[in-house]
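User: Fold this; tokens only.

Assistant: Input:
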Amino acid sequence: MRREDDELVTVTPCEDGPLLIRGPFELVTQDGEPIPPGRATVALCRCGRSSVKPFCDGSHKATGFRATSAPDPES
């Protein structure tokens, strides 16, 4: 994904963990309200168990969440 200023934003799905977002990005609710990320790189919850959604709090470790970093193969 590239922004107007041509800086690269990357989203990295971590194996058995969160989505890491790096680069200049804006995080908003579905209604368009800004969500302050608090830092330049954020970890977004993928397991659904975080108590600080949409951010990751490490709950995936305790719940045994499993997911690869690669896309699921097409059926």
